[in-house]
Amino acid sequence: MTMTYAWLWTLLAFVLTWMVLHLIKMKKAATEDVEAEAEERSDGATDVIIVGAGVAGASLAYALAKDGRRVHVIERDLKEPQRFMGELMQAGGRFMLAQLGLEDCLEEIDAQEAKSLAIYKDGKHATLPFPDDKKFPHEPVGRLLRNGRLVQRLRQKAASLSNVQLEEGMAKSLIEENGVVKGVTYKNSAGEETTAFAPLTVVCDGCYSNLRRSLVDNSEEVLSYMVGYVTKNSRLEDPHSLHLIFSKPLVCVIYQITSDEVRCVAEVPADSIPSIANGEMSTFLKKSMAPQIPATGNLREIFLKGIEEGLPEIKSTATKSMSARLCDKRGVIVLGDAFNMRHPIIASGMMVALSDICILRNLLRPLPNLGNTKKVSDIVKSFYIIRKPMSATVNTLASIFSQVLVATTDEAREGMRQGCFNYLARGDFKTAGLMTILGGMNPHPLTLVLHLVAITLTSMGHLLSPFPSPVRFWHSLRLFAWALQMLGAHLVTNAARFRRTYIAK
Ligand SMILES: Cc1cc2nc3c(=O)[nH]c(=O)nc-3n(C[C@H](O)[C@H](O)[C@H](O)COP(=O)(O)OP(=O)(O)OC[C@H]3O[C@@H](n4cnc5c(N)ncnc54)[C@H](O)[C@@H]3O)c2cc1C
Question: Do 142 and 439 form a contact (C-beta atoms < 8 A)?
Answer without folding.
Answer: yes
